[in-house]
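WARN retry 2 of 3 for item q-0093 after timeout on previous attempt; input resubmitted unchanged.
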Amino acid sequence: MKHKIYYPLIMSIVLFLTGCVADETVVVEVDTREKILNKWNILVIDEIDPSGQRYQSTIYKDAVEKNKIFITNFHGLGGTDVFAYVSGKTITLPEQTTAKNKVVGTGIISSTYTEINWNYTVDEGNGPMVATAVFKSDLPVKK
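OK item q-0093 returned
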């Protein structure tokens, strides 16, 4: 008689356990752009001023393309903003002309999202010049 009582109980437990399906892993896509939308203090080192120039720039995102950003005052040129594309922690600045200045390059975002290291070429009308820049969220601006 005891076997008749335990059998339905054991079968219920077995059916319950085998009927469970592991939860699917949900991958949340992080928009790196959200972490770099900011006003940045910039230090640029180039062939004209190897001691460095300081200025400010702002990064804001494109409303339509999900990996596109705009950067104000890139290389301290002012005028029209440049555009770039973010993929992971890499920013690609495709060749473009803004206010008669050609720019092209790449930026690498730090793991803390507080620094972007740039290597790029700029042509202000006197031929191409190689430059590096560090965008920092905490770099003081020269007054």
